[in-house]
Amino acid sequence: MSRVLSTAIVLALLAATAGAFVITEGAKLEKSPIAGTKVTPIFSPSGVVERTKTAHVEFRLRKPERLEAWIQDSKGNRIRDLQTARTFARGAQLDLVWDGFTGSGTVEPDGIYMPVVKLLRSHRTIVLPSKIVLDTKPPVITVRHPLYPLLSPDGDGRRDSFSIPYRLNERAQAILSIRGRQVELTHSRKLSGQLHWNGKLNDKPVLPGRYLLTAAALDEAGNRSKPFPFAIAQVRYLSLGRDRVVVGPGGKFALRVSTDYPSVEWKLRGRSGTQRAGTLHFRAPRSVGVFRLYITAGKHSAKCTVVVA
Question: What pLDDT is recorded for position 107?
């Protein structure tokens, strides 16, 4: 009798175990009521990039549901409602937006936050696994300074451009501006790289003169650092040490010429020649008068007034 009872108990246990296994496996195979989840990974309410000023929590419902949603901090505190209790149809696509502000209008502290969805019909509370990072601190870019580069962007391969290494304290894009106008935004967000200027604005070589160069950085959250001046670049194609010379008839005089060309051509009252760039030496006309000395280097030219008296 006891042997029959034991057999019955064993069979009952096996049946219960099998039933529990079927239920467990069924639960494993049951699809989540939420699908197509997309959550903004990082944002900054004080950033300069419009698309990262707010965080979006997007998902689709697989069946009709009444739900509410909110944002909770890393300690599990409910800090901001995203959706009050409301019924949605099957297949409803939700896009819930969090602006990062408290109810009193201040920005929440930087940190990690989690979106939570509570399904009231299903009696389930789902903490979405995608975290949201709120980051309002601008990146820091470091560039060697002060610098005074000399450029001659005329395409001859000599001093056509200027490059400078930089370092960042976080992943961000580096920005180079000339006189406040952005000329480079790096594609890379690596912690180090080089800023480069080809001496052009709007794809055209700039005029001779001095140009203030500033560096900044833009991080993934959309925070941009303040421009940091680090160099004054001098753009020069051809310049003369003076634009007026007074000399006696037939007298000798010298003129300093600055250019990145190895030699220059000159013309003075019917005479012409070629000299190495640097300090040029001439003899004035023998007649009294005012004459023009023309200096040419490549496509660039300059003139000096020669007064013979």
Answer: 96
- Given CATH 2.60.40.10, say whether it is the number of domain 238-308: yes
Residue 3 binned pLDDT confidence (cut-offs 50, 70, 90): low
CB 181 within 8 A of CB 136: no
pLDDT class of 127 with cuts at 50, 70, 90: very high
User: What percentage of residues in the chain have a pLDDT greater than 70?
Assistant: 90
Classify 141-235 by CATH class: mainly beta
The structure's pTM equals 0.79
Domain boundaries, the chain: 32-134, 141-235, 238-308
pLDDT beyond 90 at 156:
no
